[in-house]
Specification:
The complex is a heterodimer of chains A (about 260) and B (about 260). Chain A has nine helices and ten strands. Chain A has about 260 residues and is an alpha/beta fold. Chain A has two domains: about 190 residues, Rossmann fold, CATH 3.40.50; about 60 residues, no CATH class. Chain A has a six-stranded mixed sheet with strand order 6-7-8-3-9-10, sandwiched between helices. In chain A, strands 2-1-4-5 form a four-stranded antiparallel sheet. In chain A, helix 6 links the parallel strand 7 and strand 8. In chain A, helix 3 packs across helix 4, helix 3 packs parallel to helix 5 and helix 5 runs parallel beside helix 6. The relative contact order of chain A is 0.19. By secondary structure, chain B is mainly alpha-helical. In chain B, about 75% of the residues lie in helices and about 0% in strands. Chain B has ten helices and no strands. Chain B is globular and about 70 Å long. Chain B starts with a helix and ends in a 17-residue tail after the last helix. Classes of the chains: A alpha/beta (about 260), B mainly alpha (about 260). At the A-B interface, helix 2, strand 6 and helix 3 of A face helix 5 and helix 10 of B.
Amino acid sequence: MTAVPRDGTPPAPLQPTDSAAARGFSARLDAVSVVRGGRAILDGATTQLTGRGVTALIGPNGSGKTTLLKLLNGLVAPDAGRVVWFGPDGETSPLGVRQAMLLQQPALLRRTAAANLVFAAKRAGVPRSDRRSLAARWLDKAGLSALAESPARRLSGGEQRRLALARALILAPQALILDEPGAGLDPAATRALEALIADAAASGVKVVFSTHDVGQVRRLADEALFLNAGRLEAAGLARDLLDDPPVVSLAAFLKGDLLC
Amino acid sequence: MILQDWDGAFAMTPFRDAFGEAVRLLATGDEKLYEIVALSLQVSLSAVVIAALIGLPLAALIAIARFPGRGAVIAVMNALLGLPPVVVGLVVYLTLSRAGPLGDLGLLFTPTAMVVAQSILVTPIVAAIAHRTLEDFHAEYAEEFACFRMSRLEIAWTLLVEARLSLATALAAGFGRAVAEVGAVMIVGGNIDGVTRVMTTAIALETSKGDLALALGLGVVLLGIALTINAVAFALRGLAARHAGEVGSEARPVRAGRVR
């Protein structure tokens, strides 16, 4: 059930290097399938993320990107196969890794921007006396200090996404999962968001994100996975995959052709 | 025509006299009138507090948990919205009467009995309205809270806090129903002067006795309370919508559709 591209060449298996495995967290999908309403959303996906930096997940709408991210996070359990994370202490389940996830449409609490971060700090087990100062620090990093006392849901789309990302990062995650973090943002908002993501990756957090923006893959990602109709059709270094697509479906996707 | 005019004048004079007397009672702080108002508020507020303690956790439980018979609980809860006060009064009367199962408590014709009866009336209102609100909130936040790895109890508590403004309108609706209700308090309280006489029972009695001044004075207070409750509920809805980041005053969840 290994994901085999339609033209027959298997995706190059990625193996974590020893140093990478020692440094960060990584994950493996073993023949994972998710079926909803009789339809296979993911169909026997097998891959190995490297422990290196940032993984981008690309593919057309409905190809199963969000489901794969939720599998990695543990929000969704596979109907077949298994999802394994491993870190310095060996193999574990998705719930065994301290994860944060930025949903495609983050639901902010009906509180101020600062209070949203204080809430996350509490979830992360930060002592009460330190929560406000930690929230202030993250508001500053996200460029939202001036809006600290504004109701979170009154912020603009870009500000809300940045706040949601700060809320995820305040959890001090070992792995950060982002579902289309740049969708619907203007270039300045995208740049601000990507700076936060790059910072997190540089500090050793394993980042996995989905996107439709090929430029974002080039800017952020070390490796990339290509999903098409629930099947993992290509995996490899981001640069290699974009410059020299190993499968015709990926080449067509990158050219903007409609896939069926 | 002449007959009609004469008839009207005949009816208007006692009304004008009574209204003047009612204003005097209110303005001079008539002890009897305010004693009745105070007991009314005490009984109905107590009933709302009890309804909140039972109804809100119940609503949160039903909004979050999935268990066999959940649909039936929701159906029963909504059916109980239409409980006729006199029937509730009758059942509580039979339960608390000397020969009834709780007759030994000696609670019949006491304010406590009135609180019990009104709690039974108000709890389904609070629970049903709160449940609708909390279910919407849960749909909006469930995935986010799962990302935060929150327990059921933490989710329930956070939902109650997030929905606090909307829930306050549920409590206001319950209080409005309790304070304006006459059938149940009349039967279990007995409308005893200085002991169990509240605004509604006093109005009914004084009107039938022909003492329109006290009846009208109490009527003015009751009307003022009802209008205030609705004004407060309206203001809370506006505030809730503002916190939700919505334009307009309708309190609806922002995320209408779910994205896979």
